Amino acid sequence: MNNQEIVLRRLNNQQIASPTFQTAVDLVRWMGAMQAQDLPMVKWAVGVRLPDATQQLVETALNKGDILRTHLLRPTWHLVAADDIWWLLELSAPQIKTSLGSRHRELELSDETVNRGLAVIEKALSDRQNLTRNQLIAELERANVATDANRGYHMLVLAELEGLICSGVPAGKQNTYTLLAERVPKRSSLNREEALAKLAKRYFTSHGPAALPDFVWWSGLSVGDARRGLEMVQSDLVSETIDSETYWFSDQTFTPPSGQALVYLLPAFDEFIISYRDRSAALPHENFNKVVSNNGIFRPMIVVDGQVIGIWKRAIKKKQVVVEASLFVGVDDHTRNLIEEAAGQFGEFLQKEADVNFSFPSA
User: I need a labelling partner for 328 at 20 to 30 A (CA). Which of 18, 86, 96, 198 fits?
Assistant: First the structure.
């Protein structure tokens, strides 16, 4: 197995090249979790993996609570299936809170302050169900719980990690929070060993081939916990060693594609790149800073046969989406046409016409 087979298998296992699911919740469950701080982009991350999906389909799943957006794993915003939320929180929240401990001490978020703030949030949402971030911050301030210097943000993250709140039904174009226990009634969970094994199986099946350091990065687990999770499921996986690194993936038939190139417009922060510590198989070093900014922003990518060959951005108009495709390399007319087709799929997802403008590297 070489780097090219690694990325082609990842395209397949991540449901990009060979989608097998019909619903957003089944897709998100398969992926384990999907990074989601850019909400419009993660909707497309789901859509590009579902045949004939529209943005409305993904939004409906979010509004119904079939999938949820909350902080867990590394941590940052993630999409998760509703029936995974409790065990994932119980597994990942303790380590996240430990990692945030020094910052919370700097902000003087004592246990007493946090408990008081959580009580305010719980009462506000018990009374009114779905509230925006600004509305909850206002409730905290009315109760004399300090929210300056980013304290309000951290208070809401802690409320998510405590299993108190999660994403709610949008208020117009504004996102809201609601009580998690009302959105997804708590059910019997997994013990820690079961959860470690389940998360490892999910990751290496949906994201493989991947190495242990990749799983450590993606999950936010300690090296010891990640290794223990992998050890418990490695008999269900196969492995190959390349340059002293062992890659694990599901033992399923894989036929490398032949004929027409595989071309995709993948969103910002897509799992195809962000879910691995080592991204060099798909993104060579010379192009890394064109895709990932110095402050950690992962730009939308143009991917051809598993290789990132450019970036793109969109301008959404009333009936049209204009895609600006900036390529790192020259392409033939056939590949250019396939990029236009991929942009058309994005337009169909938004239920708009797509127009593509290209820019190419200087000679």
Answer: 18
Does the residue 202 lie in any domain? no
Report phi then psi at 189, rounded to 5: -105, -170
User: Beta strand pairing status for 176-179 and 131-132?
Assistant: antiparallel
Whether the model pTM is above 0.90: yes
- Proportion of the chain above pLDDT 70, given as a percent: 98
- Give me the sign of the Cα torsion angle 98, 35, 275, 193: positive
Number of domains in the chain: 2
- Residues comprising the chain, all counted: 363
pLDDT for residue 363 is more than 60: no
Domain assignment of residue 240, yes or no: no
Query: Counting beta carbons within 10 angstroms of the beta carbon of residue 108, is it exposed (0 to 12), middle (13 to 18) or buried (19 or more)?
Result: exposed
In a domain, 251, yes or no: no
pLDDT (tens digit per residue) in 130-184: 999 999 999 999 999 999 999 999 999 999 999 999 999 999 889 999 999 999 9
pLDDT grade, residue 361 (50/70/90)?
confident
* Structural domain that includes position 346: 263-359
